[in-house]
Specification:
- The complex is a heterodimer.
- The model of chain A has no long low-confidence stretch (mean pLDDT 82).
- By secondary structure, chain A is mostly helical.
- In chain A, helix 9 runs antiparallel to helix 11.
- In chain A, the strands form two sheets. Chain A has a two-stranded antiparallel sheet. In chain A, strands 4-5 form a two-stranded antiparallel ribbon.
- Chain B has one domain.
- The longest helix of chain B has 36 residues.
- The chains are: A mainly alpha, B mainly alpha.
- At the A-B interface, helix 16, helix 17, helix 21, strand 3 and helix 22 of A face helix 1, strand 1, helix 4, helix 5 and helix 6 of B.
- Strand 3 of chain A pairs parallel with strand 1 of chain B, so a sheet runs across the interface.
């Protein structure tokens, strides 16, 4: 393919989503047509972006695309531009994958709902919005895409508006989300007033070194704006409500795609627009926010008893990992952060889809009421376990590979700078990972294992279409975990290199020689060793050997026995209670942990009042703090 | 071609015989028997014969396996103990026995930290599928114990990584091979005053990780009928008992590898002094290494597991958590801070 031809792919990828959305409004009444359009509109962009991997990721090119061929004149960029570098393409690939899988899942998942055509319209608008955001080379277009995706996401959160709390969640999201969007708009206006341009590359060339007070204010506004999109602390309660209410396929997009767009915005803002990441204070700021999000949200998740709310808090916790790693501002750190962002999209998508499957069949996601579904839904259980193992960082799944890189990056940073604070970050990250594991042990115990309640005895496995979508993600989770070398070589390292090559970014957009910026040497060296394939190989041999020994020793000479049915005298009693009443509820499973942290949990409980006024107040306080911080340190 | 075949055979030998499956089986159960005997003698009982764990294991293997009707997934129920055992055996392959290492460049200390979770998670999953309330309580406590041990273990490993890294001028070092090489060159880590608190902390973590007294709230035979193992019988139960024994070996030998690695140099010098050369010297060194390693493991077990077992009563789960996150973590933190400032 000639490069001329390939240059048009990004705009086609964005257009296909929006085109699909409008076509479904017109023709979506017919089921087959609707599904066909949605499939093409989601598979097409994925294929187009995969075709871009070779020229951008491997050959290191950048696509600068001017709408209507309005190239910069006189050094000023007037036209609307798309700029796709390895970073943009990386996020684009994540988004396209998540959207595609979520769409496949929706076909069966949403069939019982009313107004399904509207669902697909909003779904594709959301997808197009995020895709436009990450491929855009223009700050104002980023704002427009943020608006589109925010409103589509709000509407989709409230899509099942008869469900308890859906409208409330959407309202909260609307209020705080709009505050975020307004911040982005205000920041954009301030920058335009200063620099007379909206083009990202030109802004990146003009702003650093010319920081006035209003530019610093713009930084704070944009920072808070993108933070609300990434739901990092203090915006995390919104995510929990939105995920709890939205259909599972939309939760996949909110956690796997929307939060990524926030992270993308933050990277563009700090590494490109203001180029502030060399400042120790800025690194501290991002790492601090990331670590707080990581830890606060994992503890919040431990206190949940709703499957999807629990996943929502974990989602923010994992975003905390990404932000921490990106904030380290080292080659390994950024590469690890992006790797984790990818893994997060995959395993969190899988987990949300599994939660959706449970909801689809049982009608509830309350951990205290569910149990024993492994007997009825064995495939969903297996897929869920893969997702759970990935997010908890059990080797050899993908979550481990990226977390392991993050630990190393943080500890290396600590060793290089001599700052013990970064060692603390490593410790928090490692403990958070174990807390994540605890949380998923809780889910597996109270949803899939444990005892099957009477009311769910007629539950069935979900349709094949839904399992297939989950299967794709599960397969990707395993593959990206087993081949970390390939993933880092072809995906995350080019993207991380792009993060550090601002000069190339500006010059490829505005013409060679606009700016002379040496790209720093990016170091991806790791201090540790981990080769999952060899380990897995050893494990399989050992497992085979042990199984053969076990079976030859009549391990499988098994008798199934029902010791309870005949009469009461064989029944289990626990703490004086019949076993039916003595199951430990999902909420209280880790009593021994929560007891020691009861003051913390009590504090958190009071803090998260669920009142939108409070959350809006938090946003205002966060903005005020960000403004103060930006004026002091920049 | 024959070279590849020979290599394959050698690796297979590593996995199946030494230091893999057979070695783990024999030494683990032996360690378990010694521990039981020691505890008995400390409590002025006669105690079982040292080979009792072997008799127990073979007896359990001869029994019928009963799967309760409440089990939600028979595959998980039967496979969980085997996966746990396999992952422990593989983990044992990465722990250097002084100068002898079966596999060097596969996993570092952080990976080991996570690989240690797999046996625990498999026992939790196995208990979880039974649907028994005893298992429910047991797994809850097991998970909290894991959480409790995790923080001090992380601190210990990071302080080791920093100390070794300081000396090697790389700033930090996670590789077990390099940690072993470092100790062979500069002497055991235990000889450094800054590492002594970390070593004590690790010694206190061992009974928590293996689920021994007084940190065995998760199994608590007298209270919750061994928790997650309540519904297990026959060969799977035997494999769980074996897992417990192997985990004792893994934790103690990891302790030796991290803190007493310098002893290996002495063994090599001894072999050299005996005037051995070539292949014979290599064999003798390995034999001596294994022997010394095993003796040190027995010593660690005696101090870290048996003695603690004999003099304490079982703690409640919230006490376990508090103890690890305050006392033991505090000790490890002292080492981390000291190693950070170059002591």
């Amino acid at each position: 393919m000639s490069t001329e031809f390939v240059r048009h792919f990004p705009i086609f990828a964005i257009m296909l989503y929006f085109l699909g959305a409008f076509l479904i409004v017109m023709l979506g009444k017919v089921r087959a047509l609707r599904h066909g359009i949605a499939f093409v509109a989601t598979a097409g962009p994925l294929a187009l972006l995969i075709a871009l991997v070779k020229p951008i990721m491997i050959d290191g090119g950048i696509i600068a695309y001017w709408m209507g061929n309005r190239v910069p004149a006189g050094g000023y960029a007037i036209g609307i531009a798309l700029e796709v570098d390895a970073l943009g393409l990386f996020f684009g690939l994540l988004i396209a994958t998540a959207v595609f899988v979520s769409c496949l899942y929706s076909f069966r998942y949403m069939e019982r709902d009313d107004n399904v055509p509207q669902y697909y319209t909003l779904f594709l608008m959301l997808a197009g919005g995020v895709m436009g955001l990450v491929l855009s080379g223009d700050l104002f277009n980023m704002f427009i895409m943020v608006e589109i995706l925010t409103f589509a996401a709000v509407a989709l959160t409230a899509f099942r508006n008869r469900a308890n709390g859906a409208l409330e969640a959407a309202f909260k999201y609307l209020v705080v989300g709009c505050m975020g969007s307004t911040c982005i708009l205000a920041g954009t206006i301030l920058l335009y007033a200063q620099a007379r341009t909206l083009n990202f590359a030109q802004l990146s060339a003009l702003i650093p070194g010319n920081l006035g007070t209003s530019t610093k204010l713009a930084f704070a506004l944009l920072f808070i704006g993108f933070s609300t999109k990434a739901f990092i602390v203090p915006f995390h309660p919104l995510a929990a409500d939105a995920h709890g209410a939205a259909p599972a396929s939309i939760s996949v997009l909110i956690s796997g795609v929307l939060t990524k767009s926030g992270i993308y915005g933050l990277i563009r803002l700090t590494y490109f627009l203001f180029q502030t990441m060399e400042l120790g204070t800025m690194q501290f700021w991002l790492v601090f926010l990331g670590s707080v999000s990581m830890f606060v949200c994992v503890t919040m998740a431990l206190a949940q008893h709703d499957f999807k709310r629990l996943l929502a808090f974990h989602s923010i916790s994992q975003i905390g990992y990404v932000l921490t790693a990106v904030g380290l501002a080292t080659g390994l750190g950024v590469s690890a952060g992006l790797y984790h962002a990818m893994n997060h999209t995959l395993f969190k998508g899988l987990l949300f889809l599994a939660a959706g499957a449970v909801l689809h069949e049982t009608g509830t996601t309350d951990l205290n009421r569910l149990g024993g579904l492994a007997k009825k839904m064995p495939h969903t259980t297996a897929l869920f376990l893969i997702g759970a193992a990935s997010i908890s960082g059990i080797p050899p799944f993908n979550g481990f590979a990226s977390k392991w890189m993050i630990y190393q990056a943080a500890y290396q940073k600590a060793a290089e700078t001599g700052n013990i604070g970064f060692a603390l970050v490593t410790i928090i990250a490692l403990v958070t990972s174990t807390l994540t594991l605890a949380s998923f042990v809780k889910v597996s115990q109270s949803v899939f294992f444990g005892r099957l309640p009477k009311e769910y005895e007629k539950v069935q496995e979900v349709p094949f279409g839904m399992r297939f979508a989950m299967g794709i993600l599960a397969l990707l989770c395993i593959l990206t975990g087993l081949f970390p070398g390939l993933v880092t070589k072809y995906l995350t390292e080019p993207a991380a290199r792009a993060v550090f090559s601002v000069g190339t970014y500006i010059n490829s957009m505005m013409g060679e020689g606009t700016i002379i910026l040496q790209n720093p040497v990016v170091n991806f060296a790791q201090a540790g060793v981990w080769s999952p394939i060899n380990w897995l190989f050893l494990l399989i041999i050992a497992l085979l050997a042990i199984t053969i020994v076990a079976i030859s020793g009549k391990y499988d000479r098994v008798r199934e026995m029902n010791a309870e049915k005949p009469e009461g005298k064989y029944d289990l009693f626990f703490g004086g209670e019949e076993s039916v009443y003595s199951q430990v509820g999902g909420e209280d499973l880790f009593w021994g942990f929560k007891h020691n942290w009861r003051h913390y949990f009590g504090f958190m409980h009071e803090l998260h009042s669920g009142v939108v006024n409070d959350y809006a107040l938090w946003a205002v306080v966060a903005l005020a703090l960000a403004i103060v911080y930006a004026t002091i340190v920049l | 071609m024959s070279a590849i075949l020979l290599d394959a055979l050698r690796y297979l030998g590593y996995i199946l015989i030494f230091p893999g499956f057979l070695f783990c089986f024999l030494t683990g159960l032996l360690l378990c028997g010694i521990d039981r005997k020691l505890v008995a003698r400390m409590q002025k009982r006669v105690g079982p014969p040292i080979l009792q764990p072997f008799y127990d294991f073979f007896k359990l293997c001869g029994k019928e396996t009963i799967v309760p009707a409440t089990v939600t997934s028979k595959t998980v129920f039967l496979l969980a103990p085997l996966v746990g055992l396999a992952s422990l055996v593989v983990l044992q392959l990465f722990i250097p026995i002084f100068s002898f290492r079966a596999f060097g460049a596969v996993a570092d200390v952080i990976v080991i930290l996570y690989l240690l979770l797999i046996p625990a998670v498999s026992v939790i999953m196995g208990g979880s599928v039974t649907g028994s309330p005893y298992a429910g309580v047991g797994l809850s406590r097991e998970m909290v114990t894991i959480l409790a041990c995790e923080l001090p273990l992380v601190l210990v490993l990071l302080s080791v990584a920093k100390t070794v890294g300081n000396a090697l001028d790389t700033g930090l070092c996670f590789s077990l091979t390099q940690i072993a090489a470092f100790q062979a060159k500069y002497g055991s880590l235990i000889l450094r005053p800054s590492m002594i608190p970390a070593a004590i902390a690790f010694l206190l973590i061992i009974p928590g990780e293996t689920g021994n007294h007084p940190f065995d709230a998760a199994e608590a035979e007298t209270e919750i009928c061994e928790g997650m193992l309540a519904e297990y019988s026959g060969a799977p139960l035997g494999v769980y008992k074996l897992n417990h024994a192997v985990k004792m070996l893994t934790m103690t030998s990891l302790f030796i590898a991290l803190f007493f690695g310098g002893i290996g140099t002495g063994i090599e010098q001894l072999a050299a002094a005996m005037g051995l050369t070539g292949g014979a010297a290599g064999m003798v060194v390995i034999l001596l290494d294994v022997l010394v390693m095993f003796l040190l493991c027995v010593l660690t077990t005696a101090v870290g597991i048996s003695f603690v077992h004999a003099v304490t009563a079982r703690l409640k789960i919230e006490q376990i958590f508090k103890y690890y996150w305050t006392v033991v973590s505090g000790l490890a933190l002292i080492s981390l801070v000291l190693s950070w400032y170059g002591f």
